[in-house]
Amino acid sequence: MSIIQTDKWLEKDYHQPLNITKRLLTYFEDVSAAELYDYLIVHGMYRPVKDGKVSVEKLRSLDCWNIVMMEWKRLKKIWNGPDIPIFIFPSDKYNIQIKRDFKGKSGVAFKDKLFLFLPEDIEIDEVKALFIHEYNHICVLAKNSRKDEQYTLLDSVLIEGLAESAVLHQLGENYISNWTNYYSKKNLKNYYEKFILPNKHIKQNEREHYKLLYGKGFYPKMLGYCVGFYLVQELLETHSISYSSLMRKDLNEIAKLIVI
Question: Taking every annotated instance into account, which residue ranges of this chain make up the domain DUF2268 (predicted)?
C-alpha cells in the first residue's frame, strides 16, 4: 500500500482536520476521529493555522511524498521490511519540544502503519532521516512479534537506539537528532545503571515506562532515547559488529550483548 496521497486530503480539508482523521479510521479500531486527532497532535501533527495551506504547497514542491516512496523502496529491500500505509502531514510549528529535540519534524510508528509530520522548510535529507528512524521501528516490531503490552522499558530503549543509529548509519552524524548530544558517555552510563537497569522490566502500558523513556518529571530529558542510542553505539563498537548484523537480531539477543 505504501504512500497515501494525503496531500489531496490536505488540499480539501486542511482546516477541518477531523475530516482527515475520519478518513484514517479505517486503519484503526475502537477510536473516534477526535480521539485519534488528539493522539496524533501529541506526536506532532499540525494544528490548523490561517496560512497553513502554504505549508502543504511547500511540502508538495519539495516532492516529499515521492521522496518517502523512493526511500521506502530502498529500505524495504535492505531491511526486508513490510509494506505498510505511510501518511504524511505538516508538523505542529508551535510544538516547542519538537523544535528543540527533533529539528521540527516528528513521527509515530505503529506495527502496521506509519505517520510523518514535516515542517514546511525541511531539507530533503531531513525527510529521509525521519523516515529512516520511523520505518526502522516498523522493521524491528515486525521481527519481534509481541503484543504491545509485552514490550518492556529496555525493549523501548533499544528500539529507539536502533532507529537513531540507523539514521547515523544511513546518512551520517549531521542528520541525527539533537538529543543524541545531550549527555556525555559517562553520564549515560550512569543513567543506564541508575534509571534504566533497575526498571528494565516495566511494561509499555505502565505510566513510569514513558516517563523514563521521554525523561518526564524529575528524570533527565529524553532519558530512554539518549541511553538507547548510547547502548547501541557501544554494542557496535565493543563487539565489532556491523549495524546490518545487529538489525538481524531480535531484541532479546541484543539485550544479552549489553555489558556496560
Answer: 64-255
Rg of the chain on CA atoms, in Å: 18
- Going by C-alpha positions, the residue among 56, 72, 62, 78 that lies closest to residue 2 is 72
* Cα–Cα distance measured from residue 169 to residue 85, given in angstroms and rounded to the nearest whole number: 25
Specify the pLDDT at position 115. Answer: 98
Burial profile 75-84: b = 16 or more Cβ within 10 angstroms, e = fewer: bbeebebeeb
Question: Does an H or E element contain 117, and which?
Answer: strand 114-118
Element (H, E) at 222: none
pTM for this predicted structure = 0.94
pLDDT digits (tens, 9 = 90+) for 32-69: 999 999 999 999 999 999 888 899 999 999 999 999 99
Q: With H, G, I as helix, E, B as strand and everything else as coil, classify residue 43.
A: coil
Per-residue pLDDT of 200-225, as tens digits, reads 999 999 999 999 999 999 999 999 99
Closest CA to 242 of 165, 179, 171: 165
CA distance 91 to 95: 8
**What is the distance between the alpha carbons of residues 110 and 187, in angstroms, rounded to a whole number?**
31
Report residue 1's pLDDT band, with 50, 70 and 90 as the boundaries. low
The CA distance from 131 to 65, in Å, is: 11
- 218: cell is 524529575
Angle at 102 between CA 173 and CA 69, to 5 degrees: 80
Domain residue ranges in the chain: 6-143, 148-256
